[in-house]
Amino acid sequence: MDKKDEILKVALRLITESGFHATPTSKIAKEAGVANGTLFHYFKTKDDLILALYTKHQNELRLFIDKHSTKNNSIDSTFHVFYISTINWIHENQTAFQFIQQFHQSPFYQLIPREYINQNESFLIELLQQGLNQGAIKQLPIELLHSMINSHIIGTINYLTTRNLSLEDFHKTTQKSFSLLWDMIRK
Amino acid sequence: MDKKDEILKVALRLITESGFHATPTSKIAKEAGVANGTLFHYFKTKDDLILALYTKHQNELRLFIDKHSTKNNSIDSTFHVFYISTINWIHENQTAFQFIQQFHQSPFYQLIPREYINQNESFLIELLQQGLNQGAIKQLPIELLHSMINSHIIGTINYLTTRNLSLEDFHKTTQKSFSLLWDMIRK
DNA sequence: GTCTATACGTTGATAGAC
DNA sequence: GTCTATCAACGTATAGAC
To answer: What domains are defined for chain B?
Structure first.
């Protein structure tokens, strides 16, 4: 792995553990096995590093969802696949997801252009639009539904990650959780 | 208002805006209209200030819920009152709630004793236990239900606060959101 | 590209007068 | 209790050699 990736990898872990400002660049450089100056060769400022970290993992999540979700099936099946694959990615990338959440609650988030956010949300938004058109889900503002689904996923993840479930129980819980979601939004 | 409260009030605002570490004690003191040394007279360290801020508002929320929720009515009615009053408190105390969320995601949270957390969650946990006993809600692990309800509330708040709704629409949305929650957990 | 050395501002916290 | 003055430590970022 080259030095740039190593810096990003270490930064993700340390920042998620301690927060943006409590994580000095010196510590990141040290644990990544590079000199302090090297970090600033790859990232002009510390803020640049944080923004790069965000877009990197956000892109990975979006690509994963796009790759695993097809829109050819029925609405409820598409929803199901979307839900499961999102949970799976988050579970495999817990630190990255924690970082994304931290980032969303920080002032940095205001620096992200609206178009970029829209792009990341587009899959779910279009799916909801389709569901509304077909009368499969409750007639409510699409942003409300979107917000409820996002927080539902976060709640499920919070539950899953604070326990140490067997793989079987993990899948069972994920399925039950999806049922809850579907009971909530279906007409 | 005495100086201690003024410090807490300003700290809440500044820390919520910029985060724990990005908010210097000097700035808090300045905006609170006190000298730097005065802040450290009331709070031994900066961490002490942050912990005091957390327990203060967390206590206020708990007292508010205890005060407005009665357990004498039917389960669904008690749930409804709990939900509405929680949303109302959060809406009236958005900054405090944002701070609490920030705090929960920070390493500080590990410093909070488990008993204190249990105490704050006790109302909802007991309510869920009662609902399970009566067969009113789905037979699922109580922690899963608890987690789903918490995140549901956060999702609703996120939606409500990013829009500028009239008081009427605000209440309508809150009611609809509760219906969604109830559809999700009821048997 | 990578390193060492260092400049420079900022911050949390203390001491001591009033 | 409140203030002023001050310090030691730390953190970001740069300069320049290799």
So the answer is: 1-44 (1.10.10.60), 54-185 (1.10.357.10)
